[in-house]
Amino acid sequence: MIRNLSVRNYILIEKLDIDFNSGFSVITGETGSGKSMIIGAISLLLGKRADTDVLLFKDKKCVIEATFDIKNLGQKDLFAENEVDYSDQTIVRREIMPEGKSRAFVNDMPVTLAVLKTLTDNFLDLHSQHENLSLTTLPYRLRIVDSAAGTLALFEEYKQKYAEYQSVAQLLKSKKDALAKAQKDLDYYRYQALEIENAKLSSDDELEELEARASMLENAEEIKSALYETSNLYDGGEYSASVLLKQMRSNLAKISKNFKPAQELEQRLESSIIELSDINDTISQQLSQVEVNPQQLQLTNERIDLLMGLLAKHRASDIAELKQKYEEYKGYVDNSGNLEVEIADLEKQHSAKAKEVKASAENLSKKRSASFKKTQEYINSMLHDLGMPHGVFEIGNEITEVSANGIDNISFLFSANKAVAVEPIEKVASGGELSRLMLALKSLMANSMNIPTILFDEIDTGVSGEIAARMGKIMQRIAENVQVLSITHLPQVAAMGSEHFKVYKHTDDQRTISSIKKLAADERITEIASMMSGEKLTPEALENAKVLLGKN
Fold first, then answer.
1. Spatial separation of the C-alpha atoms in residues 437 and 426, rounded to whole Å
2. CA distances from 341 to 171, 172, 183, 336, 348 (A)
3. Where are the chain's structural domains?
4. DSSP state, residue 4
5. If pLDDT is split at 50, 70 and 90, which confidence band does 293 have?
6. Cβ distance 111 to 67 under 8 Å?
7. What is the mean pLDDT of residues 523-547?
8. Per DSSP, what are the bridge partners of residue 89?
9. Is 348 exposed, middle or buried (0-12, 13-18, 19+ CB in 10 A)?
10. Please, are residues 68 and 138 in contact by the beta-carbon 8 Å criterion?
């Protein structure tokens, strides 16, 4: 249950503090006094999005905080799953900053709006003035039926199974789409891979090596001539370099005994002769390897053209990247075979999941249907208590294909008049009838769901007199097990509350401010009397107010 509510700088509320007790509390006030602001503030605590339009003073932050007693809700595991500290007296806070940012806290720990909604989902059931329209939606009707049938947990299990089934179905579709595309492109990729494979790529440097070889073959005659002439200059005749160098060494040897520096010069010259001799040997070897071979040159150029063509075609910058392209093509070809294996396995999984989901949906539908009679009897009994002796409520169900909701297409049918066939509620129920029907359904949900607090926002719209009193009595009964807060404009309902709060406006020199106060016994008489007589408070209205309060 909600223990207290604190609001700061919200719309027309500068400062508001309310303490709530268990049982049935009513909130009244003139139209426009700010009752809807309380609904808005609590909605923010339950995860509704906010913007800076709610700030009374635009340069200050808005802070809304409430303490919820949740010791009997069994929420410890849920808090642990969301990594939030648990407390039996949980404090929820929303802050809206002037720059537009919004922050949420649970027990002083920052949380996202998604986590806030998850944690507070069972704290309080908020019935807004627009919720009657929810009866036209299948998810809302299912929530009511599952509440009555005790199948809320079973439905959650089903939704998990259905989500798994959908996940497998989507994966199977994506794999089939990939296989269809692969088969369409398979011949292309197989050809690309074969083309590169037939090129028999060797080292990553092959192209550079081929270009060097082609250059040598193209200039073979010039190279051979230069090598031959160089070798001949060194060792080709009477005045060759080798003969002259040996003569130089002999001259130095003759004077080395008498001229010490000659010994070192002779040694250095000897080293040069050895090195030059080695160079000449290498030149001779290279000379034997260089050949004028037009046929070999043609083959080399053809190989270069092949590799260059492959690089250009496959948009590769070098041989290494071309090899990578080959692996990609080959992988694509090989993967098509793997996809067929994966698809076969997924089809088995899909079939098994489909059977499991269908069985789960049928079981859920069976348990839902088993509750229809009892639910109809309860709602019809409540309608009779609410002044509709001929009112008939029925639950219709059309079995459909498996969907996220199971196989049930639940409809709520209604007739307010004797001997008139039932039709869908949204087609035949008036505003007052919808209000009474919604209260009956809320009573049903309160008895079957573990929600500690229900907040009614003018659920009594469209009724008056004795019917209003009966609606108040029902809310009193609900409040025996659940904390009930009711914003009402009817004195008959207001008189039923064990506590009475009044929302009112007051104006200072600068602005109009909304406030709230808990009414004492004499103040309640005055408030209820004014609700009956308007601005002019009459003695009769005061007496009638005392009578209404005395009946409770």
1. 12
2. 14, 12, 14, 9, 11
3. 1-124+452-519, 134-150+371-450, 205-317, 521-552
4. E
5. confident
6. no
7. 87
8. 69
9. exposed
10. no
CA nearest 37: which of 378, 464, 512? Answer: 512
Report helix, strand and coil shares of the chain as percent, to nearest 5: 60, 20, 25
Q: pLDDT tens digits, residue range 481-503?
A: 899 999 999 999 999 999 999 99
Question: In a 3-state reduction of DSSP, which class is residue 91?
Answer: strand
Tokens of 340: 């067929």
170-173 — which CB contacts under 8 Å span 24+ positions? Answer: 171/346, 172/343, 172/346, 172/347, 172/349, 172/350
Cα dist. 247→141, 259, 281, 450 in Å? 118, 18, 21, 118
- Which residues lie below 8 Å from residue 488, measured CB to CB, with a gap of 6+? 26, 27, 28, 456, 458, 460, 494
- By CB atoms closer than 10 A (0-12, 13-18, 19+), residue 401 is exposed
Q: Is 271 exposed, middle or buried (0-12, 13-18, 19+ CB in 10 A)?
A: exposed
- CATH number 3.40.50.300 given to 1-124+452-519: yes
Ramachandran quadrant class, 199 (left: phi over 0; alpha: psi -120 to 50; beta: rest): alpha
407-421 core/surface letters (b: 16 or more CB in 10 A; e: else):
bbbbbbbbbbeeeee
Pairing state of beta strands 499-507 and 24-28? parallel
Q: What predicted TM-score, i.e. pTM, was given to this entire model?
A: 0.66
